[in-house]
Amino acid sequence: MQGSANLNIMIKAARAAGRSLVKDFREVENLQVSMKGAGDFVSRADLAAEKIIREELTEARPNYGWLAEESDEVEGKDPTRRWIVDPLDGTTNYLHGLPHWAVSIALEHKGEIVAGVVFDPAKDEMFVAEKGQGAFLNESRLRVSGRSRLIESIFATGLPFGGRADLPETLQDLARILPACAGVRRWGAAALDLAYVAAGRYDGFWERRLHPWDMAAGLVIVREAGGLVEPLRPDGEPLADGEVVVANEQIFESFAKLARGA
């Protein structure tokens, strides 16, 4: 696809970070004997990837703002634009040697996400989208699935870990959704969950307690692939609230009702 200058900058930054992460990922398996050692190593890999992305984006667009997982927010000289970055979405997968993690970069303009890149270096899959220009996986156009029956659909979500307080709510979600569908997957990387909805691999996705960098890029990719995106709560806002439900148009109403417990 022929992307804008900004999108090409984002793709270049994602690939550069991806190369660094892949190199370090090869070392993770050797560190599994020491969870602390492996965790420290992955933290360094995460920070190194963010540094690469920040340098690439700042060199190209020095006036844009910055919001990322591993560093302080920066308001740019251009207050209407900012990058929203997760240098390593799926850190726990990375730590355990599971090849399912991604670099996520979004561009926000006047409060709206206008471009997004989700790069899976382990599989060499680059999901990209710009507002009004469609969504793509490498060079192929993306469309959400055409399934119209919940019982034939597969959904993705996240599951609470480490004693998080939202476990009871999530179990209630699963009790409503599992009997109505063909399955629920928890793969541990929200950016890729959203990209997979855009690609028709999943039929929908819902989750709570996300951060803006977890989903900013994925949301524009889903929208540009023809998917619907709404907050879980009435009058909510996904990036601000950290809660979202997405699906193709045919099943959205039924799926969202289940996800919301309405």
Describe the structure concisely for a colleague.
With 262 residues, this protein is an alpha+beta fold. It contains eight helices and 13 strands.
Secondary structure layout plus pairing:
Blueprint: H1 5-28, H2 35-60, E1 65-68, E2 71-74, E3 81-89, H3 91-95, E4 102-109, E5 112-120, E6 125-130, E7 134-137, E8 140-141, E9 154-156, H4 167-177, E10 183-185, H5 190-198, E11 204-207, H6 212-224, E12 228-230, H7 238-241, E13 244-247, H8 249-260
Parallel strand pairs: 1-3, 9-10, 9-11
Antiparallel strand pairs: 1-2, 3-4, 4-5, 5-6, 6-7, 7-8, 11-13, 12-13
Helix pairs in contact: 1-2, 5-6
Summary tags:
D-Maltodextrin-Binding Protein, domain 2; Fructose-1,6-Bisphosphatase, Chain A, domain 1; 5-stranded mixed β-sheet; 2 domains; 40% helix; alpha+beta; 8-stranded mixed β-sheet; 262 residues
Would you mind describing this structure in some detail?
It contains 8 helices and 13 strands. The strands form 2 sheets. Strands 2-1-3-4-5-6-7-8 form an 8-stranded mixed beta sheet, with helices on both faces. The model has no long low-confidence stretch (mean pLDDT 92). The radius of gyration is 18 Å and the shape is globular. It has 2 domains: 5-141, Fructose-1,6-Bisphosphatase, Chain A, domain 1; 150-260, D-Maltodextrin-Binding Protein, domain 2, CATH 3.40.190. The protein has helices at residues 5-28, 35-60, 91-95, 167-177, 190-198, 212-224, 238-241, 249-260, and strands at 65-68, 71-74, 81-89, 102-109, 112-120, 125-130, 134-137, 140-141, 154-156, 183-185, 204-207, 228-230, 244-247. The protein has 262 residues and is α+β, with helices and mostly antiparallel strands. Helices cover 40% and strands 24% of the residues. The longest helix has 26 residues, at 35-60. Strand 5 (112-120) and strand 6 form a beta hairpin.
